[in-house]
Amino acid sequence: MAIHPQSSVDPVLYPIGAPENAGGSALSWSAIAAGTVGAIALTLALMALGSAFGLASVSPWPGVGARATTFTIEAGIWLIATQWFSAALGGYLAGRLRVRWHGLYSDEILFRDTAHGFLTWATATVLMAAVAVAATALSSLAANPVDATVTAETVDAARKAAAAFAGFGGLSLIIGAFVGSVGGAIGGRLRDLHP
What we know:
By secondary structure, the protein is an all-alpha fold. 64% of the residues lie in helices and 2% in strands.
């Protein structure tokens, strides 16, 4: 019986050969789904809390909520904190709830746990983006207020606020991916400490 190079393992890492469960899937989509649900739920809770403190309520219409030109550093920090806490929770849940692999090299287990945390963050981010796009599309169907006045200064201020929001959001997403990955690694490490 010929051994295929794809099925052989490094004898230094695995001196007794391939582990018995090596043929199973490296991904546990149920753990990723559970982490995603946890991350989205925490995001919604923190966004509601931020709205209560006036950190997440922006309106482009005069006289309704905060103006679009008043995006503040505090609101940006709240958005970043929300992303990080949610990504950490989702990644941790995915790493901790994943089925334990026996007989794998510790670096491979660390990589898989990290990947579960990252994929949880990615899934939650894509779902939240889809909801945001759908909400934006539905809100564009609403009638515009009759008394809305738009000046060049208002448009410029809204553009600057949107650029600040995009900068905070982009930074938050990049670091959120890292935080979710680390959360998955920590969750997996704690899972493997218990029988």
